[in-house]
Design a protein that fits this description.
- Strands 2, 3, 4, 5, 10, 14, 15 and 16 form an eight-stranded mixed sheet that branches. Strands 1, 6, 7, 8 and 9 form a five-stranded antiparallel sheet that branches.
- The protein has a domain of 248 residues: Rossmann fold.
- The protein is α/β, with parallel strands linked by helices.
- A hairpin with a 5-residue loop joins β7 and β8.
- The protein contains 14 helices and 16 strands.
- The structure holds S-adenosyl-L-homocysteine.
- S-adenosyl-L-homocysteine binds next to α4.
């Protein structure tokens, strides 16, 4: 039975489910979920991410990790972790750049947090020749807790599910996935308490409650605060509280109806950075936020692009296009943001006052 048939049957028996529960089923259902069965990242797949756009992205994050380790006093052991490493290309590029710092590589242990078995296989292949051998766990809680932590997660917050509340003339309601008259999956509303902080919202406005994103940030923040360390959470999303329905399904680079093909498309919501930063600070960490363009420029992406173009003049036009895609205000530069959660008392590279 397909995931659609199983969801339809479950909803017929048990009633409508929240948008968050629908997302979780579509992404992680063990037999039919998108990440469990058919994750397809890259040009030939369903969606493309920054490390897939250009090697510069992972390389600069590798240099950031080395500089962060130095800023922490070059501890003799450090946990270098990536959550949701996808195809493994970000970490592969990061470790190539980190070869410039053998002292860092001697101190670092590589841990990958991945729930998707097919993606873990891709990561194993991508990192086969890397200077550090990876180990896998399925949750941040399973990472070693006895050494400073340097963590990166690119496009992971957006797959952590959110609930959606809608302002109606009768008060707030929760948007749920139920069945229409013909028994097909459809959105509906059920009464719900007002959200804890409801911005001024017109009738019909949707507010997303990203509890799973806040919980993830709190877990990472508690670790970097306790074990020392810093984490980058990079994603597209809002820097200020905003209203709006950001649930989106992508299949072969096209937006599709989120209810049309459960488990067959990637399903995401925008990262809620105000909630992420608040949760991190409440858990005892320092937290800062930059646009992706500002972060990459502070790490020197323009000089890196110029050096790559000098080394490969025939690729200069491609490199210029990649630079534009990662940093252009109308491309990934402004919508994508980089949250840094860090131990109180030290400021990781790029997150100090602009020089
Ligand atoms: N970071 C990669 C891949 C992004 S796709 C890149 O930038 O290309 C999202 C990644 O997050 C996948 O590896 C997916 O398996 C992982 N993921 C999805 N839900 C997750 C969860 N709940 N916990 C941990 N990882 C998750």
């Amino acid at each position: 039975m397909s995931l659609r048939e199983r969801l339809t049957r479950e909803i017929a028996l048990g009633g409508p489910i929240s948008v968050a529960d629908y997302m979780t089923r579509c992404l992680h259902d063990p037999s039919d979920g998108y990440y469990a069965t058919r994750p397809a990242i890259g040009e030939a797949g369903d969606f493309i991410t920054a490390p897939e756009v250009s090697q510069m992205f992972g390389e600069l994050i590798g240099l950031w990790a080395v500089e962060t380790w130095r800023a922490m006093g070059a501890p003799p052991r450090a946990v270098l972790a990536e959550v949701g490493p996808g195809s493994g290309v970000l970490m592969s590029d990061a470790l190539r750049a980190a070869r410039l710092a053998p002292d860092f590589l001697a101190a670092a242990e590589l841990w990958l947090v991945e729930r998707s078995a097919p993606l873990a296989e891709r990561q194993r292949a991508a990192l086969a020749a890397a200077p550090l051998a990876p180990r896998w766990v399925v949750a941040v809680e399973d990472l070693p807790a006895d050494a400073p932590l340097i963590l990166v997660a690119n496009e992971v917050l957006d797959c952590l599910p959110a609930r959606q509340l809608v302002r109606t003339s009768a008060g707030w309601a929760e948007r749920r996935v139920g069945l229409d008259d013909r028994g097909a999956l459809s959105f509906g509303l059920s009464p719900a308490p007002a959200p804890p902080c409801a911005p001024e919202a017109p009738l019909g406005a949707v507010i997303e409650i990203a509890e799973a994103q806040a919980a993830f940030a709190a877990g990472v923040a508690a670790r970097v605060a306790r074990q020392d360390g810093a984490a980058l959470l990079i994603d597209y999303g809002r820097a200020e509280p905003e209203v709006g329905d950001t649930l989106q399904a992508l299949r072969r680079h096209e937006k599709v109806d989120p209810l049309a093909c459960p488990g067959e498309a990637d399903l995401t919501v925008h990262a809620d950075f105000p909630a992420v930063l608040a949760a991190a600070r409440a858990a005892g960490a320092g937290a800062g936020l930059l646009t992706q363009a500002a972060f990459l420029r502070r790490l020197g992406i323009e000089a890196r692009a110029a050096a790559l173009s000098r080394a490969r003049p025939e690729a200069a036009a491609v490199i210029a296009r990649q630079l534009g895609r990662l940093t252009g205000a109308d491309q990934m530069g402004a919508l994508f943001k980089v949250a840094c959660l860090h131990a109180p008392g030290f400021t990781p590279p790029a997150f100090g006052p602009p020089s």
